[in-house]
Amino acid sequence: QVQLVESGGGVVQAGGSLSVSCAASGRTSSIYVLGWFRQAPGKEREFVAAISRTDSSLDYADSVKGRFTISRDNAGNTVTLQMSSLKPEDTAVYYCAGRRGMLLATTPRTYDYWGQGTQVTISS
After folding, report:
1. I need a labelling partner for 37 at 20 to 30 A (CA). Which of 64, 96, 109, 124 fits?
2. CB 99 within 8 A of CB 109
3. Which residues contact 56 (CB under 8 A, 6 or more apart)?
């Protein structure tokens, strides 16, 4: 089994920066991709960014390109999402997710493991 635990998040003013991290433990060898998703109240969970644990592949949602940066440690067990130029519409619960498939993916149902989520609130 795999456990994903998010940390970070909080409240920041629009235009500010914030980072969230995710620590993976357990059978991490079964995970090839780590991703970030977010869900705002009344909205569906949406893809934010993903990174491969085995190579340099990464992907971003168009809405965050140029503002968010996803990175991982060498072991691939910690993934960080650095967020800058934050907007009120970035407010959501941010979830870390792990995928057994080797290819990057943007659909929530293709991810096998999920963290509990961390709240990010951007004030205007």
Report:
1. 124
2. no
3. none
DSSP string covering the chain, please? -EEEEEEE-EEEETT--EEEEEEEEESGGG--EEEEEEE-TTS--EEEEEEESSSS-EEE-TTTTTTEEEEE-TTSSEEEEEE-S--GGG-EEEEEEEESSSS----GGG--EE---EEEEEE-
59-113, pLDDT tens digit by residue?
999 999 999 999 999 888 999 999 999 999 999 999 999 999 999 999 999 999 9
Buried/exposed 59-88: b ≥16 CB within 10 Å, e otherwise? bbbeebeeebebebeeebbebbbebeebee
Residue 67 tokens read as 């503002």
**The token pair that represents 106 in the structure block:** 């943007």
d(CA 30, CA 55): 15
**How far apart (Å, rounded) are the C-alpha atoms in residues 12 and 77?**
27
